[in-house]
Amino acid sequence: DAGVTQSPTHLIKTRGQQVTLRCSPKSGHDTVSWYQQALGQGPQFIFQYYEEEERQRGNFPDRFSGHQFPNYSSELNVNALLLGDSALYLCASTSDLSTDTQYFGPGTRLTVL
Amino acid sequence: AQSVAQPEDQVNVAEGNPLTVKCTYSVSGNPYLFWYVQYPNRGLQFLLKYITGDNLVKGSYGFEAEFNKSQTSFHLKKPSALVSDSALYFCAVRPGGYNKLIFGAGTRLAVHP
Question: Based on the number of CB atoms within 10 Å of its own CB, is B106 exposed (0-12), middle (13-18) or buried (19 or more)?
């Protein structure tokens, strides 16, 4: 049973560029959430996608956007990159049951120079 | 404001001794509570969760956690620590009516031989 997968593993960009990160959920899951984990901090919720729509959003600017595809996979897009966007970006998947656990992928390490 | 506090940046324990990693929370409604573990350059691995019922929850790798509603705490415990338990531990809460997880800042557990 494949778990949550993310690509790429690492990414280096320069300020002002745009980046796209990808996530495939665990088999049987239809809901995908994205989190940002800055160095030395806990993950911060960016947004969640269900049925190809953004269902809930954390306190992140509009430069952060996402998409969910019919096969439940998801993309996170960040425009106009800032140095402060350097972080580990984690994708988590779950089924739509209220008590279900979110399972995390290995993350994408983004470095902005 | 909804928040999770992990008061200890680091916990040191000798192998074979019991360990406790502390977590307190401040959220509205009836929260769901989680513990995750993160190894270097890896995503988060689910350990255990409390939804309702028995206040003592058993999870993976011999870990357990005790929910205390009056003290709004959810401390992680293990009767006998292993060197391989050394990692970064995160407490998280899912507030009632929300889909996102709110994480603490993490506690680094160091188990010494």
Answer: buried
Residues 79-108 on A with a CB inside 8 Å of B are 90, 92, 99, 101-107
- The pLDDT of A54-76, averaged and rounded, is 96
Contact with chain B for residue A58, Cβ under 8 A: yes
pLDDT of residue B27: 87
Q: What are phi and psi of B56, to 5 degrees?
A: -100, 120
Which pLDDT value is given to residue A61? 97
What pLDDT does A1 receive? Answer: 61
Average pLDDT over residues B78-98: 92
- Element containing residue B14 per DSSP (H, E): strand B10-14
Buried/exposed B52-63: b ≥16 CB within 10 Å, e otherwise: eeeeebebeeeb
HEC profile of chain A:
CCCCEEECCEEEECCCCCEEEEEECCCCCCEEEEEEECCCCCCEEEEEEECCEEEEECCCCCCEEEEECCCCCEEEEECCCCHHHCEEEEEEEECCCCCCCCEECCCEEEEEC
Residue B43 has a pLDDT of 85
